[in-house]
Amino acid sequence: MLPSLLPALLCCRAPAPPELPPPPPALPLPPHRVLAGPEELVEVIGGLGPRLLGVGELHATVDGPAETPAIAWFTDRLLPLLAPSATDLVVETWVFEGGCGAQEETVAATLPEDTRRPPETEDAIVRLARRARELGVEPRALELSCGDGALVVDAQGRIVYDQLLSALTAKLGAFAREGLATPAACLVLYGGAVHNDLHPRPALATYSYAVDIAAQAPEAYVELDLYPRAAARTQAAFAEEPWFPLLDAPVTPGRLVLYERDPRSLIVLLPEVATAP
Predict the structure, then answer these.
(1) Mean pLDDT over residues 39-68, rounded?
(2) How far is CA 52 from CA 89, 183, 264, in A?
(3) What share of the chain is helix, strand, coil (3-state, %, to 5)?
(4) Where are the domains positioned within the chain?
């Protein structure tokens, strides 16, 4: 019986699967540089000779990836290298002149919740200012008057974020113009990566002090954005950026990836260093 069944069994075998086409070739990565560390980054910045360095960060959030935030990397790794040539550090944090009552209390209580800032953000800002002073760089904050408070808090006690961002932009711009007018000054302005943008998206253009400053003194200003990689991957708007594929480029641990939107607009993808949640 067995020999007579063998041809039938052979006929019932499944046909061989078709050969799959080869995978498409990987698209080339956009032009970029891999830097060994912040020392090489400072060499790049120094070669541009700015008197105003606008540093923008991607703000950390409570539900964001557990990684070293940009402000910590800037405080520990980059600021000590910038300090020998910097006179002032302007930080995008603000203090009210005092006596502003409910407006001041509303901003202090509501803003961290609305922006999902981690509770340690305030400590990080204080540490940045203290470190700057230790290095001989004068830390400066943005001062809001009671009149500013009346503009940014509406009659229902809610923050009007368009007004708040516009006020911060104006005050950062005032510091930048003051720096331009002071020949001996060399300012580092640290804040969100909207205000320092040389090439803002149209919807955000009014929140950038950098465009007007660069128009006044093109060779005086450099934009530097610091993006932790895991956090940058979560930003839907970034997916449209030409540098977005660099977030997954194979890089030796600890190295920086530098993308130049133009010679004076620098984006740095920071090393991926996880922190405890």
Answers:
(1) 90
(2) 10, 11, 11
(3) 45, 20, 35
(4) 29-270
CA distance from start to end of the chain: 69
Q: Does residue 230 contact residue 65 with C-beta atoms inside 8 Å?
A: yes
- Six-digit token string for 234: 């979560």
Q: How many helices (H) and strands (E) does the chain have?
A: 10, 8
Alpha-carbon span 216 to 277, nearest angstrom: 44
The CATH architecture annotation of domain 29-270 reads: 3-Layer(aba) Sandwich (3.40)
Q: In the numeric block, which tokens belong to residue 52?
A: 């105003």
Which residues have CB under 8 Å from 120's CB, separation 6+?
A: none
Burial of residue 94 (number of CB atoms within 10 Å: 0-12, 13-18, 19+): middle
Over residues 23-50, the pLDDT tens digits come to 666 668 899 999 999 999 999 999 999 9
pTM for the whole structure: 0.85
For residue 150, the Cα-to-chain-centroid distance in whole angstroms is 29
Question: What distances in angstroms separate CA 230 from CA 69, 108, 241, one per listed residue?
Answer: 10, 29, 16
Measured CA to CA, the distance from residue 224 to residue 150 in angstroms comes to 33
